[in-house]
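Bug report

Summary: C-alpha cells for histidine kinase differ between web form and batch submission.
Environment: batch mode, default settings.
Steps: 1) Submit the sequence below via batch. 2) Compare with the web form result.

Sequence submitted:
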Amino acid sequence: MRVQTHRAYKLRSILIACLVANILLSMLLIGGLSYYSMQSVLRNKVEKGVQLNVRQVAGEIGNAIQNLESAAKQMAISGTAAGRLKDYMASTGYAKVQNKQDLDDLLGSISYSNASLGLIGYFDPKNGEMLLSTQLARPDAQPDSFTALSAKGSLEVQGIHPSLYLYGSKQLVLSVIQPVQLQADSPRQAYAYAETNYNVVDQLLSDGRYGFPARYILADKQGRIVYSQLDAYPVGSQADIGFESVSDERTGLVLFHEASSEGWHLLLAVDPGFYRSELDQWLGRFIVFAALCLVISLAAALFVWRLIQSRLTLLRGEIESMADSHFEREHHPVRILEFDVLLLRFAKMRQRIGELLLQVEEKERRKRHLEVEKLKYQINPHFIHNTLNTIQWMARMSKQEDIFDMVAVFSRILQYNLSKEGDWVTVAEELEAIEDYMKLQRIRYNYQFRLEISLEDKLKEQRIPRFIVQPLVENAMYHGFTDQNGCVTVRVRREGAVHYAIEVSDDGIGMDSQALERLLEESDESSRKSGLGIGLSFVDRSIRTHFGEPYRLHAASSPGEGTTMSIILPIRSHEEEPT
C-alpha cells in the first residue's frame, strides 16, 4: 500500500499558536471596535444619565415651587389669613397687637406644615417694608424686585436669588409673591411672600449626583436667563432652548435642557472632556486585561498540552497492546470525561474483538460439525419419504384405505415442513398445507371440525413466511372449542389499495381479554405440547421481522362469540417478492 508523506506539525505548537492567535485576534477586534465605539457609547450613556438627572432636578424644583405656591395661596386667598391682615392694617393699639399675634400664629402654622419653607411673610410695597415674617428679614428686603421666572395668574415665581433672611443673605432660595387686596374699594395691596429654606437650592443644584463638575442655568419662558452658575451665560442673556442636548461651539460645553410644565427652563452645562477621561481610563484597563489574558492563555495552553500528551501516550499504549494481541488488558480511568469515554469504548472494542475472534473459532468448529449434520439432513428426509411411501402402498395392497389416506396426507405435510425451497411460500401453498393438516387431525381424533377457506384469486401468489397461518388454525381448534364440532373460517381478502388481510375465525366459546393476552404471550415451549408446536408469539415475531414493526398479529374475542385472529400485510409485486 502506497503511503503519502506530508510535513507533520506538533500538536503542542498548533495548540499554543491557536490559543495565542485566538486571544490576540479577539482582543484586537474587540479592542478596536470598542475603542472606536466606546466614545459614542459612553457619551450616550452619560448623556442619558445626565438628561434623566436634569429631568429629576427640574421635577424637584417644580415640587419646591408648588409648595411655595401653596403657602402663598394660604396667605393671600385664605379668608382667615387675608382677613386677619386686613384687620391688622386697619386696627390700632391693643387690637393691632392682638391681630399681629393671630397672624404670627397663622404664619407659623403654615411654615411648620412644610419643612421646605424658609422665610414667609407680608410685604408692604407702599412703605417698602416687611409687615410680618416668620424669620427676621433684612431691612432692605424688597421681594418685588427679583426677576420673575414664571407667572400663574397674579402669582409670580421668582428666579433663584439671595435669601431675605437677615442672617442668610449669602444663601440662595426660590420664592413666590402673591398680591393681597387689603380693601375692596382701594387699590392698596400687600404681597404674600414665601421662600424656600437655604438647604433646598443647595441640594437641588449640587453636582454630586453626576460624578463630575456640572453647572445649572435657569431661564424663563422666552429663554431669558434669570439665574446662571457660569459667567459665559450671564443673567439677562438669551439661552437656546430649542433642543434636548447640544454642544455649544462658543464655550465648548455640552448643554442639557429640560422644559417644565409651568414654562420655565432648566439647563445644565457639562465639559465633554470628562467623557474622554472615562474613555482613557477604560482603554488603560483594557490593555492591562488583554496582557493578563495573554499570559493566562499561554499558561493554559501549556497545561492543556501536558494534560492531552499524557492521555495520548496512554491511548497509544492501548493501541500497541491490542496490536500485540493483548485483549485482556485492564482499563484504567484518567479522570477526564472525553478520554475516559474514548478509552472505555476502546477497551470494549478490544474486548469485543477478542470475543469475535473466539466466536470465529467456535463458528469454524461448528461449521465443520454442521457439514456432517447437513449430510445427515440430506439423507434422512429421503429415507423417511421412501419409508412412508412403502407403508402407503402396503396399506393399499392390504386394502386399508384409511391408512393409505392418512399416510398420504402426513407425507405431504412432512414434505411441506422439510422443504428446502426457502422460508417463503405462496398464500395458496400455505392454505393447502392447512387443509392437509385438518384432514390429518380429523383422521387422528375423529373430529368433525369444518374448515372453510375463502381466497381471492389475485392474492394466491402473494408470498408469506412459512407457518404464519397454520398456527392460527391450530389455535382455533385447541382453544376455541370444547367439543368436537365447530367451524374454522380462513379468509384472504384485499384490505384497501395496497394491503390484504388474512383472517382466521372460529365460532367457538371465545375468551376474555386476560385469557387472550395470556394466549398471545404463550411461549413456544408451551406450544410444543400440542399440534405443530408453534405458538402465536412466533407468528407475531415472524411478521414483525419480515415485514417491519407496524405489521403484527391482531386478535379479538369475547366469551360466547368466538375468536378472530387477523394479519394485515402489504401487497407486493413480483419484483418486490422475497426469494
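Above is the batch result. After comparison, the two runs are identical; trailing whitespace caused the diff. The radius of gyration is 55 Å. The CA atoms of residues 221 and 552 lie 90 Å apart.
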